[in-house]
Amino acid sequence: MVIIITGASRGLGWAMAEAFAADQQGHTLVLMARDAARLQQAAMQLQARFSQTTVLHYACQLGQQAQLPALQQWLQQHAPVADVLINNAGYFVPGSVHAEAEGNLEAMLEANLLSAYQLTRLVLPGMMSHGRGHVFNICSIASLKAYPGGGSYSISKFALYGFGQNLREEMKPHGIKVTNVMPGATWTDSWAGSGIPPERLMEAQDIASMVYACAHLSPQAVVEDIVMRPQPGDL
Ligand SMILES: NC(=O)c1ccc[n+]([C@@H]2O[C@H](COP(=O)([O-])OP(=O)(O)OC[C@H]3O[C@@H](n4cnc5c(N)ncnc54)[C@H](OP(=O)(O)O)[C@@H]3O)[C@@H](O)[C@H]2O)c1
User: Fewer CB within 10 Å, N- or C-terminus of the chain?
Assistant: First the structure.
């Protein structure tokens, strides 16, 4: 399989990349993130551990219209048809509509929504020409329910879930699966310095295991939504 994972240099994206890379079958992984040096290091580490897998990487700021022509050209050359696309890149800044910094919403819509929308539009023609494919959108429990301090992050994740639900309907006749993943708090770099003990949160591997399992069902089955929370509940 050809598997594209955004935000794959650390956190959930890295855990998902590890899960697919470890598959004995051997896949082609395309890893994306902004920081080119860190991404290259992540790709090299995976390649060294899993020789059956081919690990490619492409650094860019997803969600920026200006990056698309170069990205499209690179994909045409290296991964013209993807089997799995995991829209995971994104970030979290707490805030509130009335008090957060100017530009918060625009920046988070770019990173958390447009990143997925734009890349999916580049990848879909290849999937549609083969009549198969699977798009995962890493949303959040913040896509499901508003909460104090959610602000633009929660708004952007509601929007990503809306994107995923629309895509699911649209892709039904094309044999392409769409799965929206709504994780609760999961230990990654984004929680470093929060003072919350890692044992209180889920592990990135928990999310990766579910995504991996969903990607390996029969062609006639799709998991539409995955909702996961730490066992004691939300923070
Ligand atoms: N951890 C949680 O508790 C949790 C819960 C629910 C949902 N999520 C969602 O899961 C996803 C991953 O979260 P995480 O905790 O693993 O985050 P993380 O540890 O901060 O990792 C984020 C990854 O995304 C990349 N990235 C960020 N913005 C990007 C952009 N515009 N273009 C390309 N790459 C970008 C980062 O690399 P660069 O910095 O080099 O670009 C990094 O590889 C996010 O969408 C997040 O909202 C996380």
Answer: C
Residues 187-228 have pLDDT tens digits of 999 898 899 999 999 999 999 999 999 999 999 999 999 999
pTM, two decimals, is 0.99
Using the structure block, give the residue that is written with the tokens 């890295």: 14
Separation of CA 124 and ligand 1 centre (Å): 22
Answer for the pair 206, 231: CB distance below 8 angstroms, yes or no: no
Please tell me the predicted confidence (pLDDT) of residue 190: 86
CA distance 169 to 148: 31
For the chain, which residues make up each domain, given as ranges? Answer: 2-228
3-class DSSP string for 7-57:
CCCCHHHHHHHHHHHCCCCCCEEEEEECCHHHHHHHHHHHHHHCCCCEEEE
Tens digits of residue pLDDT in 23-65: 999 999 999 999 999 999 999 999 999 999 999 999 999 999 9
Task: Choose which residue among 67, 88, 108 to substitute to test ligand 1 binding: the one with the highest number of ligand atoms within 8 A of its C-beta.
Answer: 88
User: Cβ < 6 Å from ligand 1: which residues?
Assistant: 6-13, 32-35, 38, 61-63, 88-92, 111, 115, 138, 140, 183, 185-186, 188-190
The CATH number of 2-228 is 3.40.50.720
Strand partners, 5: 31, 86
122: CA distance to ligand 1 center in Å? 20
